Task: inverse folding
């Protein structure tokens, strides 16, 4: 067992970075920075901040569903990439927590 840091970012599918989907641009950035692992999860319903609840029904379609991006790595790697992530996703919730790695190739 070892310890690491898990970061969870709460985004919207309509968020952009350089006119491209933010969640994909963050994944590319994390891969370029050799972060150990990252995934993006599409929500079927949810809200960010104090906004209304959005669902995946056709009536609600329009890019407002929450997207959750999670990545895990060692403390020094997370500390290195977080400033850029704050720049890419201003005003979005970013949660950082220490985790125990039960099995990995970190």
Result:
């Amino acid at each position: 067992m070892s310890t690491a840091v898990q970061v969870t970012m709460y985004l919207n599918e309509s968020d952009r970075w350089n006119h491209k989907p933010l969640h994909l641009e963050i994944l590319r950035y994390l891969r370029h920075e050799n972060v150990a692992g990252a995934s993006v999860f599409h929500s079927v319903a949810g809200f960010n901040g104090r906004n209304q609840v959005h669902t995946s029904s056709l009536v609600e379609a329009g890019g407002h569903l929450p997207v959750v991006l999670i990545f895990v790595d060692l403390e020094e790697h997370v500390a290195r990439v977080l400033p850029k992530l704050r720049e890419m996703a201003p005003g979005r919730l970013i949660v950082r927590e220490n985790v125990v790695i039960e099995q990995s190739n970190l």
